[in-house]
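pls design
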Protein backbone atom coordinates (compact mmCIF):
# COMPACT_ATOMS: atom_id res chain seq x y z
CA UNK A 1 0.00 0.00 0.00
CA UNK A 2 2.84 2.35 0.87
CA UNK A 3 4.57 1.59 -2.44
CA UNK A 4 1.33 2.22 -4.37
CA UNK A 5 0.85 5.56 -2.62
CA UNK A 6 4.44 6.57 -3.38
CA UNK A 7 4.06 5.70 -7.05
CA UNK A 8 0.79 7.64 -7.26
CA UNK A 9 2.46 10.66 -5.62
CA UNK A 10 5.33 10.52 -8.12
CA UNK A 11 2.90 10.44 -11.05
CA UNK A 12 1.01 13.45 -9.67
CA UNK A 13 4.25 15.41 -9.18
CA UNK A 14 5.41 14.59 -12.71
CA UNK A 15 2.07 15.74 -14.11
CA UNK A 16 2.29 18.99 -12.16
CA UNK A 17 5.88 19.61 -13.26
CA UNK A 18 5.06 18.87 -16.88
CA UNK A 19 2.12 21.22 -16.77
CA UNK A 20 4.22 23.98 -15.26
CA UNK A 21 6.74 23.70 -18.10
CA UNK A 22 4.09 24.02 -20.81
CA UNK A 23 3.24 27.43 -22.20
CA UNK A 24 0.31 28.68 -24.20
CA UNK A 25 1.34 29.50 -27.74
CA UNK A 26 -0.47 30.21 -30.98
CA UNK A 27 0.87 27.99 -33.72
CA UNK A 28 -0.27 27.05 -37.22
CA UNK A 29 -2.01 23.86 -38.22
CA UNK A 30 -1.56 23.36 -41.93
CA UNK A 31 -4.54 21.76 -43.64
CA UNK A 32 -3.27 22.16 -47.17
CA UNK A 33 0.25 22.42 -48.60
CA UNK A 34 0.58 22.30 -52.39
CA UNK A 35 3.66 23.25 -54.37
CA UNK A 36 4.37 23.33 -58.09
CA UNK A 37 7.41 24.33 -60.11
CA UNK A 38 8.32 24.49 -63.78
CA UNK A 39 11.01 21.80 -64.00
CA UNK A 40 12.55 23.57 -66.98
CA UNK A 41 13.73 26.30 -64.61
CA UNK A 42 13.63 24.99 -61.04
CA UNK A 43 12.42 22.19 -58.80
CA UNK A 44 11.56 22.74 -55.16
CA UNK A 45 10.01 21.08 -52.13
CA UNK A 46 8.46 22.31 -48.88
CA UNK A 47 8.03 20.06 -45.81
CA UNK A 48 6.43 20.98 -42.47
CA UNK A 49 7.13 19.09 -39.23
CA UNK A 50 4.50 19.80 -36.56
CA UNK A 51 6.08 17.75 -33.74
CA UNK A 52 9.08 20.06 -33.40
CA UNK A 53 7.69 22.85 -35.52
CA UNK A 54 9.89 23.80 -38.43
CA UNK A 55 9.87 24.16 -42.19
CA UNK A 56 12.31 22.59 -44.62
CA UNK A 57 12.71 24.18 -48.06
CA UNK A 58 14.91 22.96 -50.90
CA UNK A 59 15.39 24.26 -54.44
CA UNK A 60 17.46 23.15 -57.42
CA UNK A 61 18.02 25.67 -60.22
CA UNK A 62 18.14 24.06 -63.68
CA UNK A 63 18.47 27.21 -65.77
CA UNK A 64 20.10 30.52 -64.88
CA UNK A 65 17.53 32.97 -63.51
CA UNK A 66 18.25 36.50 -64.69
CA UNK A 67 15.83 38.10 -62.22
CA UNK A 68 12.94 36.89 -60.05
CA UNK A 69 9.76 38.48 -58.72
CA UNK A 70 7.93 37.00 -55.72
CA UNK A 71 4.16 37.51 -55.66
CA UNK A 72 2.36 36.97 -52.35
CA UNK A 73 -1.37 36.87 -51.60
CA UNK A 74 -2.38 36.40 -47.96
CA UNK A 75 -5.82 36.30 -46.36
CA UNK A 76 -6.15 36.04 -42.55
CA UNK A 77 -9.61 35.70 -41.01
CA UNK A 78 -10.81 35.77 -37.40
CA UNK A 79 -12.39 32.36 -36.75
CA UNK A 80 -15.02 33.81 -34.41
CA UNK A 81 -15.99 36.76 -36.59
CA UNK A 82 -15.12 36.56 -40.31
CA UNK A 83 -15.83 40.28 -40.69
CA UNK A 84 -12.40 40.86 -39.13
CA UNK A 85 -10.18 39.97 -42.06
CA UNK A 86 -6.74 41.09 -43.16
CA UNK A 87 -5.55 40.74 -46.75
CA UNK A 88 -2.18 41.31 -48.37
CA UNK A 89 -1.38 41.39 -52.08
CA UNK A 90 2.18 42.36 -52.94
CA UNK A 91 5.03 41.67 -55.36
CA UNK A 92 8.70 41.88 -54.36
CA UNK A 93 11.85 41.69 -56.45
CA UNK A 94 14.40 39.17 -55.18
CA UNK A 95 17.44 40.94 -56.63
CA UNK A 96 16.47 44.24 -54.99
CA UNK A 97 16.00 42.42 -51.68
CA UNK A 98 19.52 41.02 -52.06
CA UNK A 99 20.82 44.58 -52.53
CA UNK A 100 18.98 45.68 -49.40
CA UNK A 101 20.43 42.77 -47.44
CA UNK A 102 23.97 43.76 -48.46
CA UNK A 103 23.64 47.50 -47.76
CA UNK A 104 21.32 47.87 -44.77
CA UNK A 105 22.28 46.90 -41.18
CA UNK A 106 18.75 45.57 -40.65
CA UNK A 107 18.95 43.69 -43.93
CA UNK A 108 22.29 42.14 -42.97
CA UNK A 109 20.87 41.10 -39.59
CA UNK A 110 17.78 39.40 -41.08
CA UNK A 111 19.78 37.88 -43.94
CA UNK A 112 22.38 36.54 -41.49
CA UNK A 113 19.64 35.10 -39.26
CA UNK A 114 18.09 33.15 -42.16
CA UNK A 115 21.51 32.09 -43.49
CA UNK A 116 22.11 30.17 -40.26
CA UNK A 117 19.50 27.65 -41.40
CA UNK A 118 21.11 26.66 -44.69
CA UNK A 119 22.35 27.79 -48.09
CA UNK A 120 20.31 30.67 -49.52
CA UNK A 121 20.45 32.83 -52.63
CA UNK A 122 23.13 35.49 -52.23
CA UNK A 123 23.10 37.41 -55.51
CA UNK A 124 21.61 37.73 -58.98
CA UNK A 125 21.57 36.32 -61.57
CA UNK A 126 20.86 33.04 -59.81
CA UNK A 127 23.21 30.44 -61.27
CA UNK A 128 22.00 27.08 -62.50
CA UNK A 129 23.17 23.90 -60.83
CA UNK A 130 26.74 22.79 -61.41
CA UNK A 131 28.13 19.59 -59.89
CA UNK A 132 31.40 17.74 -59.56
CA UNK A 133 32.07 14.04 -59.19
CA UNK A 134 32.76 13.22 -55.59
CA UNK A 135 33.10 9.47 -55.05
CA UNK A 136 33.11 6.24 -57.04
CA UNK A 137 30.53 3.70 -55.90
CA UNK A 138 30.60 0.01 -56.91
CA UNK A 139 32.70 0.89 -60.02
CA UNK A 140 29.62 2.08 -61.89
CA UNK A 141 27.89 4.91 -60.08
CA UNK A 142 29.23 8.25 -58.95
CA UNK A 143 28.10 10.36 -56.04
CA UNK A 144 28.27 14.09 -56.77
CA UNK A 145 27.81 17.25 -54.76
CA UNK A 146 26.55 20.63 -55.95
CA UNK A 147 28.93 23.53 -56.38
CA UNK A 148 26.12 26.03 -57.01
CA UNK A 149 22.44 26.19 -57.93
CA UNK A 150 21.37 24.11 -54.93
CA UNK A 151 19.68 25.99 -52.09
CA UNK A 152 17.99 24.88 -48.89
CA UNK A 153 16.66 26.02 -45.51
CA UNK A 154 16.46 23.33 -42.82
CA UNK A 155 14.62 23.46 -39.49
CA UNK A 156 13.54 27.06 -39.97
CA UNK A 157 10.96 28.57 -37.64
CA UNK A 158 10.00 32.14 -36.94
CA UNK A 159 10.66 33.68 -33.51
CA UNK A 160 7.81 32.97 -31.09
CA UNK A 161 6.33 34.91 -28.20
CA UNK A 162 3.72 33.41 -25.82
CA UNK A 163 1.80 36.70 -25.69
CA UNK A 164 0.30 35.71 -29.06
CA UNK A 165 -1.88 33.26 -27.09
CA UNK A 166 -4.14 36.17 -26.08
CA UNK A 167 -5.02 36.84 -29.72
CA UNK A 168 -8.14 35.36 -31.36
CA UNK A 169 -7.60 32.18 -33.35
CA UNK A 170 -7.25 32.70 -37.08
CA UNK A 171 -7.65 30.99 -40.41
CA UNK A 172 -5.13 31.69 -43.16
CA UNK A 173 -4.77 31.20 -46.89
CA UNK A 174 -1.47 31.95 -48.64
CA UNK A 175 -0.58 31.92 -52.33
CA UNK A 176 3.16 32.22 -53.05
CA UNK A 177 4.37 32.56 -56.63
CA UNK A 178 7.78 33.10 -58.22
CA UNK A 179 8.14 34.57 -61.70
CA UNK A 180 11.28 34.65 -63.81
CA UNK A 181 12.08 37.93 -65.58
CA UNK A 182 14.30 37.56 -68.63
CA UNK A 183 16.43 40.33 -70.14
CA UNK A 184 13.37 41.81 -71.88
CA UNK A 185 11.39 41.74 -68.57
CA UNK A 186 9.07 39.01 -69.84
CA UNK A 187 7.55 37.15 -66.87
CA UNK A 188 7.31 33.36 -66.67
CA UNK A 189 5.65 31.59 -63.75
CA UNK A 190 8.17 29.11 -62.31
CA UNK A 191 6.70 28.39 -58.84
CA UNK A 192 3.13 28.35 -57.59
CA UNK A 193 2.50 27.27 -53.97
CA UNK A 194 -0.61 27.27 -51.80
CA UNK A 195 -0.74 27.01 -48.00
CA UNK A 196 -3.96 26.87 -46.01
CA UNK A 197 -4.78 26.24 -42.37
CA UNK A 198 -5.40 27.91 -39.05
CA UNK A 199 -3.57 29.45 -36.10
CA UNK A 200 -4.73 27.84 -32.84
CA UNK A 201 -3.66 28.23 -29.21
CA UNK A 202 -1.78 25.16 -27.96
CA UNK A 203 0.09 24.00 -24.87
CA UNK A 204 3.74 23.72 -25.91
CA UNK A 205 6.93 22.83 -24.06
CA UNK A 206 9.33 23.72 -26.89
CA UNK A 207 8.92 27.47 -27.33
CA UNK A 208 11.25 28.89 -29.98
CA UNK A 209 12.03 32.48 -28.94
CA UNK A 210 14.68 33.11 -31.59
CA UNK A 211 15.70 36.76 -31.90
CA UNK A 212 12.96 37.79 -29.43
CA UNK A 213 15.15 36.33 -26.69
CA UNK A 214 17.59 39.16 -27.36
CA UNK A 215 15.07 41.82 -26.37
CA UNK A 216 15.22 43.25 -22.83
CA UNK A 217 12.86 41.61 -20.34
CA UNK A 218 10.12 43.76 -18.80
CA UNK A 219 9.40 43.11 -15.12
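designed seq:
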Amino acid sequence: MLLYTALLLVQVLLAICHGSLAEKMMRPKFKDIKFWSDEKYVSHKVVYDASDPHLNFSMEVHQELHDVDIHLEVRITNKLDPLYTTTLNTTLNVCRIMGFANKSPVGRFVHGFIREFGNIVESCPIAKGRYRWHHRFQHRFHLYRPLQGSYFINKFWWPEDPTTAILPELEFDIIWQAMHLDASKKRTLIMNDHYGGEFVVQDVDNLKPGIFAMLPKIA
